[in-house]
Amino acid sequence: MKKIDTLKKNYEFKNVLTKGKFYSGKQIICYISKNKKNKNFLGIAISTKIGKAVKRNRLKRLIRENYRILKEDLFLGNNIVFLWKKRMKPDLADFHVIQEDMKKIFKESKILKED
Fold it and tell me: Any idea what the CATH number is for the domain that residue 59 is in?
């Protein structure tokens, strides 16, 4: 299994959140900014107010898996940060809704390759 390149440092997240473009779906929020590398970097930030660690980790797994499925169809050279909408309950998290949100966001941001 290939490893997903992730944003790890606080300043990397801050750069994307301040300079990146904002896109919203039903359950997730996304910020996308360009980078000068030939890779896409993924960051997932879920607030502790959403729930305890088990719920937050489940949301991260759902987002990461959906990204893994779609990453082959994306143009390279982007930093992508996903946030969970605070008003959405984590119990309502649905794999297919997150996938639809991601496709919609990636099409809107024009980083999804059209077949």
Answer: 3.30.230.10
**Residue partners of 12: CB distance under 8 A and separation at least 6:** 41, 43, 79
Mean pLDDT across 37-63: 95
Per-residue pLDDT for 39 more than 90? yes
Q: Which residues form the domain of 22?
A: 10-108
Report the predicted TM-score, pTM, of the whole model to 2 decimal places.
0.93
- How many whole angstroms separate alpha carbon 10 and alpha carbon 4? 18
* Alpha-carbon torsion (7, 77, 73, 89), positive or negative: positive
In a domain, residue 5? The reply is no
Candidates 4, 5, 32; CA nearest to 20 is: 32
Backbone region of residue 103 per phi and psi (left: phi > 0; alpha: psi in -120 to 50; beta: other values):
alpha
Q: What does the pLDDT look like over 66-98, one tens digit per residue?
A: 999 999 999 999 999 999 999 999 999 999 999
Instruction: Count up the domains in the chain and report the number.
Output: 1
